[in-house]
Write a structure and sequence with these properties.
Layout lengths: L17 H14 L6 H6 L18 H12 L10 H14 L3 H5 L7 H21 L4 H12 L3 H23 L6 H15 L20 H15 L5 H14 L12 H13 L35 H12 L2 H6 L3
This protein binds a DNA duplex (21 and 21 nucleotides) through helix 3 and helix 6.
Length: 333
DNA sequence: AAATGTGTCAACCGCGAGAGT
DNA sequence: TACTCTCGCGGTTGACACATT
C-alpha cells in the first residue's frame, strides 16, 4: 500500500493571506495549538464570518497550518536582522550538530528552524566559504574552525551533552513540587566548570537572565498586514475590509471605523478585540514589546521546545557557545 | 526601459518517528 | 506485532524583489 497523500486534493496552496492568518490565529486562540489535522475542518465553520466573495476560508492542509503557525504566527518570533551573537551561535551549533535546524533553533528561542536554515543557506554558508577561501579566520571564522582546532568534536559534543543533561535536570527539578531553585543547577555547573576551567568566569555569574518576553500574535499579524498594505498599493475590497477590521480591533476606543456597518464587521471587530486587545497597529514593530497586554501571554505555554523555561541554563549555554576559543582551549574533560 | 542574473525567503514535499489502536 | 495516523524535520522549490547589464 502506498503512502496516502498527506492532504486532500483541492487544498489551497501558496502564500497565506491575512484573512487566513486571522482565521488560524482565532482558531488557535480558542482551541490551542496542536491537533493540526482538525484545524482545516474546524475552521471551516469560521469561514462565514467573512462576507467577501473572494474569501474561501481556511482550506489549507494541516501541515500548512502548522507551518504557518510555527514559523510566522506563533508569538515571540523575531524575524530578520540576525545579531552577531546569533550568527556565532548558529555557526557554533551548525559545526556541532550539523544541519539539525530544529535542534539549533532550540538554542535561539526567538528564531524558527526555517529562518535559521534560510539564513544559513543564503548567507552564513557563503560567508564562511569566503572566509575559508581567503584563508582568513576573520571575526567569525575562528568560531567554526575552533571546533576542530582547539577541541575535538567528541569533546565538544560531550560538553554539550553534559550541559543539556544538566539543563534537563534543572528543569525537572524546577517543575517538581519539591521546590529546588535553578541555583542547584548553577552550583552544579559551576562546580563542574571550576574543575576544568578555572579562568572562565562567566559560569560564576549569578546574574539572572532576562526571561524571554513573548509578543502577541497580533504583533505578527499586524506586521504582516503592514507588509501587505505596502506591497499592494491598490487595495481590494477584501484588503480594505481586513485592514479596517484590524484597525477596528486594534483600536479599542473606536470600533466603528470599518467600511461595513454590518454585524459582520462588528463581529469581526469583537474577534479582533478578543484576539488582540491591544492598542494600535502602530505599537507593533519588529522588536519585542515587554509591555504587552495580558493576551500577550496567551500562547506562552505553547512554543517550540522551550529551553527558555530554564533561563539560567540557557544563558549559560549561550555564553558557553559564544565563548571565545581562548576559554575553550583551557577546557578538558 | 527592457532583459537577465542573483539573492532571499515563504511554502511545499517526502520521509521518519512516535503514539494509538 | 502490525498497522494507521499525525506530527515534525530537513531538503528543495518557486515566486518575488532587487541589482546589473
Amino acid at each position: 500500500m502506498g503512502r496516502p497523500p498527506c492532504c486532500d486534493k483541492g487544498v489551497k496552496k501558496g502564500p497565506w493571506t491575512p484573512e487566513e492568518d486571522i482565521i488560524l490565529v482565532s482558531y488557535i486562540q480558542d482551541h490551542g495549538p496542536g491537533n493540526w489535522k482538525a484545524v482545516p475542518t474546524n475552521t471551516a465553520s469560521q469561514r462565514n464570518i467573512f462576507d467577501s466573495g473572494d474569501l474561501n476560508g481556511l482550506s489549507r492542509c494541516s501541515k500548512s497550518c502548522r507551518l504557518r503557525w510555527t514559523n510566522y504566527l506563533r508569538p515571540g518570533i523575531k524575524r530578520g536582522n540576525f545579531t552577531e551573537q546569533e550568527e556565532k551561535m548558529i555557526i557554533h551549533l551548525q559545526a556541532l550538530l550539523g544541519n539539525r535546524w530544529a535542534a539549533i533553533a532550540a538554542y535561539l528561542p526567538q528564531r524558527t528552524d526555517n529562518d535559521i536554515k534560510n539564513y544559513w543557506n543564503t548567507y552564513l554558508k557563503k560567508k564562511l566559504n569566503k572566509l575559508e577561501a581567503s584563508g582568513s579566520e576573520g571575526s567569525l571564522g575562528h568560531v567554526g574552525v575552533s571546533v576542530s582546532q582547539s577541541m575535538s568534536r567528541g569533546q565538544w559534543e560531550r560538553r554539550l551533552q553534559t550541559d543539556i543533561h544538566m539543563a534537563k535536570k534543572a528543569l525537572s527539578e524546577a517543575l517538581s513540587p519539591k521546590k529546588t531553585s535553578s541555583s542547584t543547577f548553577l552550583a552544579e555547573l559551576n562546580s563542574n566548570r571550576s574543575n576544568d576551567n578555572s579562568t572562565c568566569s562567566i559560569y560564576n555569574s549569578t546574574k539572572p537572565t532576562p526571561s524571554i518576553s513573548y509578543a502577541s500574535s497580533a504583533d505578527n499579524i499586524a506586521r504582516l498586514l503592514k507588509g501587505w498594505m505596502k506591497s499592494t498599493p491598490k487595495r481590494s475590497a477584501t484588503q480594505n475590509s481586513i485592514i479596517n477590521l484590524a484597525c477596528a480591533g486594534a483600536d479599542t476606543a473606536s470600533s466603528e471605523g470599518t467600511t461595513k456597518g454590518s454585524s459582520t464587521s462588528v463581529e469581526l471587530s469583537e474577534t479582533f478585540q478578543t484576539l488582540f486587545g491591544y492598542e494600535s497597529l502602530e505599537s507593533s514593530n519588529s522588536e519585542f514589546s515587554p509591555s504587552l497586554s495580558p493576551e500577550g501571554t496567551l500562547f506562552q505555554d505553547e512554543s517550540k521546545p522551550d529551553i527558555t523555561g530554564i533561563d539560567v541554563p540557557f544563558s549559560l549555554l549561550e555564553k558557553w557557545l559564544l565563548d571565545d576559543s581562548g576559554c575553550q582551549e583551557k577546557l578538558s574533560f
